[in-house]
UniProtKB/TrEMBL annotation:
Transmembrane segments: 182-200, 212-236
Record protein name field: Magnesium transporter
Similarity comment text for this entry: Belongs to the CorA metal ion transporter (MIT) (TC 1.A.35) family.
Segments for region (Disordered): 1-29
Main location: membrane
Keyword Transcription regulation: no
Cellular-component GO terms for this entry: mitochondrial inner membrane
Domain of life: Eukaryota
InterPro entries: MRS2-like (IPR039204)
Organism field: Metarhizium guizhouense (strain ARSEF 977)
GO molecular function: magnesium ion transmembrane transporter activity
PANTHER family: MAGNESIUM TRANSPORTER MRS2 HOMOLOG, MITOCHONDRIAL (PTHR13890:SF0), RNA SPLICING PROTEIN MRS2, MITOCHONDRIAL (PTHR13890)
Membrane topology: Multi-pass membrane protein
């Protein structure tokens, strides 16, 4: 598709290759062999494509991470997951290109095989590999830098995702503790109501006829509410301390 980075790289590759292969070149330095000019143009197009793809991934990632520092919502988390997959795929691609170049540099036979013209004329020996080796090393350095940038980008995404998950877990635990506190209060009030319900039953008993029956039942209800509430909040507090110790042991 016209206007895309890939099309720009392809056009640049063709233009660069055509320039290097012109028969009317007037460079003072003798041009390298045909195969090295082609290899140089191909590797140049590869690193340009990798650089453009890195920027196309890094720009939205940096923007999204800055937005997540201000506010966390579901839509941003979905976008973070999508960008994380893209960044991981690009990191894998950049490392593959770097690995290919490294494998070629580690093999003298592969380096010697790149001298197509000299090999065809039987004038080149495997001891002289400096020309192609220096070219590949320069492109290896560029690919290595791109791969490291991609790895840093995925590390930033992973660190942000871990922080977001920690915040969400903390909020979830806070809501659970609040829910337990409400349950404890409900249980305490239910206990007091249970005691008072006996006093309000239409059945004759000692407390109904006693002058201090209302005071005794009220005091008993309040005591039951306070006791049940204290017991429930104590359990919640113990649960909170156990959770904090467990998390501390896990982090330590």
């Amino acid at each position: 598709m016209d206007g895309t980075p890939t099309s720009s790289v392809q056009a640049s590759f063709v233009e660069d290759l055509q320039t290097k292969m012109r028969p009317d070149r007037t460079d003072e330095v003798a041009p390298p062999s045909y195969e090295f000019e082609v290899l140089d143009a191909v590797l140049n197009a590869v690193v340009i494509e990798l650089g453009n793809e890195l920027e196309s991934v890094r720009t939205p990632v940096i923007s999204l991470l800055a937005e997540l520092e201000e506010n966390i919502d579901r839509q941003k988390l979905r976008m973070l997951l999508k960008l994380s997959k893209q960044a991981s795929a690009f990191e894998h691609k950049a490392k593959l290109v770097r690995t290919v170049l490294d494998d070629i540099l580690e093999s003298n036979d592969s380096l010697s095989a790149l001298y197509l013209t000299d090999n065809a004329q039987n004038v080149h020996g495997p001891e002289d590999l400096s020309e192609v080796e220096s070219m590949l090393e320069s492109y290896y350095a560029i690919c290595d830098e791109i791969a490291q940038d991609a790895q840093s980008l995925t590390s930033m995404i992973k660190n942000t995702d871990d922080i977001v998950q920690t915040i969400l877990d903390t909020n979830r635990n806070s809501l659970m503790l609040l829910h337990l506190k409400f349950i404890s209060c409900t249980l305490a009030l239910g206990t007091g109501t249970f005691v008072a319900s006996f006093y309000g039953m239409n059945i004759q008993n000692v407390l109904t006829e006693a002058d201090l029956g209302f005071v005794v039942v009220s005091a008993g209800s309040v005591t039951c509410i306070a006791g049940a509430g204290w017991f429930g909040f104590r359990i919640v507090g113990n649960l909170k301390r156990v959770t904090m110790k467990r998390n501390k042991g896990f982090l330590g």
